[in-house]
Design a protein that fits this description.
Blueprint: E1 2-6, H1 11-22, E2 26-30, H2 43-55, E3 58-60, H3 68-77, E4 81-84, H4 99-106, H5 110-119, E5 124-130, E6 138-139, H6 148-166, E7 171-176, E8 178-180, H7 188-197, E9 203-204, E10 210-215, H8 216-231, E11 239-242, E12 244-245, E13 247-250, H9 251-266, E14 273-274, E15 286-287, E16 290-291, H10 296-322
Parallel strand pairs: 1-2, 1-4, 2-3, 4-5, 5-7, 7-11, 8-10, 9-14, 12-16
Antiparallel strand pairs: 6-15, 10-13
């Protein structure tokens, strides 16, 4: 297939592009900054952009979803599948995140985009969602929205579902849990590795939350398969979703799992200090529902790639910190 994908410079987007290309599809990506040099201020994102450019058939810079140039590309590109992975994530962790403004940005020009896509005989649309949206996945407390950001993703999906339905375009929603792996932003696993390489014991403050951590390579493989399945529904309007699942366990158990896998690969002790969690500002349980299978070889390779990435990213800093 010929696929147009937004949001390729993100952690998951980068891996999605590579998985789609590896499956034999021609992937064209759009990025909002004017050129590759515009990502130089974010080294990890710049590395993703370089990886995407190696995998993608074409990279179009300076395009934002819904603007006139984007609509022109959709009209003339003869794409089979439109994958909207980009989203407004500015200050997404803040309780003051502007959910309504984010939705407006996420669906900007959507009618024009879908009209152009349908006129060019596009087959289907795939939208990325989050397990932290209200009603997604499985879990506790009635599956509420985790945050204003989760609310914005849910409302975005509703607008897409309505507008695609109006035009007879199948819509598939790919719901992401907690991915981890190479080229990730410095978050939980990066914190653990950085501490271990510095000879420290990292602490886990919320070990009782049950979450769904998934290798990004497994997630990307699931995305490529779902994209193919959604495109195969061309001519049959309607909505479908998948919610991939990886390691379903408490965050404490996952931290210990990560430590067991990393210790022989990093070559340093990987202790973990699990706090006694007494506050639960978030729902205790939120997980995906559709197991993303990996062979033993694939899983071992995924752990190897994570260790290699973090060694390359953190060893220099650890060595510099030890001199003095």
């Amino acid at each position: 297939m010929r696929i147009l994908l937004t949001g390729a410079s993100s952690f998951t987007g980068c891996h999605f592009v590579r998985a789609l290309a590896a499956a034999g599809h021609e992937v064209v990506v759009t990025m909002t900054r004017p050129d590759a040099g515009g990502y130089a201020d974010e080294p990890v994102r710049a590395e993703r952009v370089a990886a995407v450019r190696r995998a993608a058939a074409e990279t179009r810079f300076g395009l934002r979803f819904g603007d006139d140039a984007f609509v022109d590309l959709v009209r003339s590109g003869r794409f089979d599948l439109l994958c909207h992975h980009a989203a407004d994530v500015t200050n997404y962790k803040s309780p003051d995140f502007d959910a309504v403004g984010a939705v407006a940005n996420n669906v900007r020009g959507l009618g024009s985009v879908l009209e152009a896509f349908r006129a060019a005989e596009g087959r289907a649309v795939v939208l990325t969602g989050s397990v932290f949206e209200g009603g997604e996945g499985a879990g506790s407390e009635g599956l509420p929205h985790f945050s204003p950001y989760g609310l914005s993703k849910a409302l975005t999906a509703e607008v897409f579902r309505y507008e695609c339905g109006r035009r007879g375009l199948p819509l598939g929603k790919f719901v992401i849990p907690n991915p981890f792996g190479p080229l990730e932003e410095p978050r939980f696993t990066a914190y653990l590795v950085k501490a271990w390489l510095a000879g420290q014991t990292p602490g886990v403050k919320t070990p009782a939350y049950v979450r769904d951590n998934i290798h990004v390579s497994a997630l990307a493989g699931a995305y490529a398969r779902f994209a193919e399945e959604t495109a195969a529904r061309a001519g049959t309007p309607g909505f479908c979703r998948t919610s991939p699942s990886g390691y379903v366990e408490s965050q404490g158990a996952f931290a210990l799992r990560f430590a067991r896998e990393m210790e022989p690969r990093l070559g340093v002790p990987c202790p973990v200090d699990l706090a006694e969690q007494t506050e639960f500002a978030e729902p205790r349980i939120r997980i995906g529902t559709d197991a993303a299978a990996m062979t033993r070889d694939e899983e071992r390779r995924a752990w190897d790639e994570i260790a290699e990435f973090y060694l390359r990213a953190h060893r220099p800093a650890a060595a510099a910190g030890g001199r003095g």
